[in-house]
Amino acid sequence: LQTLHLGSCVIITNLQKIQSEFSEIRDSVQANDQNIDFRVLRNAGSLQDTEPSDRCCLLRHLLGLYLDRVFRNYQTSDHHTLRKISSLANSFLTIKKDLQLCHTYTTCHCGEEATEKYRQILSHFEQLEPQAAAVKVLGELDILLRWMKETE
Amino acid sequence: MKNVLHWNPPENLQGVEVTYTVQYFIYGQKRWLNKPECKNISRTYCDLSDETSDYEHQYYAKVKAIWETNCSKWTETGRFYPFLETQIGPPEIALTTDEKSISIVLTAPDKWKSNPEDCTISMRQIYSNLKYNVSIYNIKSKRMWSQCVTNHTLVLSWLEPKTLYCVQVESFVPGPLRPAQPSQKQCISTLEDPTSALK
């Protein structure tokens, strides 16, 4: 288990399990990404380079993006991939619930930095057609996990 | 993080002089980049370590074959993420002993560097959760056991005096499986128990 320090919001999650599950579908998902000259999760928007007090809010938005517009929109007939995506979604939902608790206890403040960084990520995301964007951002899950790991 | 691209020669061109050209791509950037040292080469590998040294980025590479007046299509790799995929070398091992214990001191491997003048970066700095899998062999009893350790020292106690033990260590990072590279076996004998000499 890993402890993520997101300002005053501290959550415990199993990043290794998530990383291992994603590794099983990573190559096939990334192979479907036809836009390799375009990246949605860019270093400039990274979680670890965000003020600690804004990290919880940024991560909450990113998890919401994955839950609402990536896992839901990713289309495949491969059952193994579907099962893995479902498991990833459940893990993200658990983390999001923990962040929601922080939000309830006002330790998940949305400052200007988090808002602006998420706005940029969203604008990159929306430059692509929904299905292509879902493929790309799912393929970038190891970048998001790396960001999360850096807050350990 | 020594990253070398390898490929197999085309099957149907035995006996024909074939050369190869390699290009690489940084995910999210705009164009394929040349590697001058890997243009029109006859060997079937190309060292892209310098080009892929920023382990935060993700990369692609591709190669094509050229023979007579022909050239093949490009063959492209999948997305390569050095941070996740690099193989981590074994640590350095220092052993000291007394009658019934062996102290093991481990030093994390260094990041590979093409230029010896470059500053040395320990893999511990890159992977804060670097761990070691220590295997211990009692040569006399032929018994073997393993221990997973996080910090760089380990003391094996309650050993048999005057017995040869060998130690082999692998570095690993929890997460997706990576090919492991065990260290050389290092052996040391525990000292004779002075009290046993008096009996």
Automatic annotation (TrEMBL), chain A:
One of its GO terms (molecular function) is cytokine activity. Its main location: secreted. Pfam families: IL10 (PF00726). SUPFAM superfamilies: 4-helical cytokines. Disulfide bonds join 9-102, 56-108, 57-110. It is found in: Secreted. The keyword Signal applies. GO terms for cellular component: extracellular space. Keywords: Cytokine, Disulfide bond, Secreted, Signal. Immune regulatory cytokine. Belongs to the IL-10 family. This is Interleukin family protein. It comes from Fukomys damarensis (Damaraland mole rat).
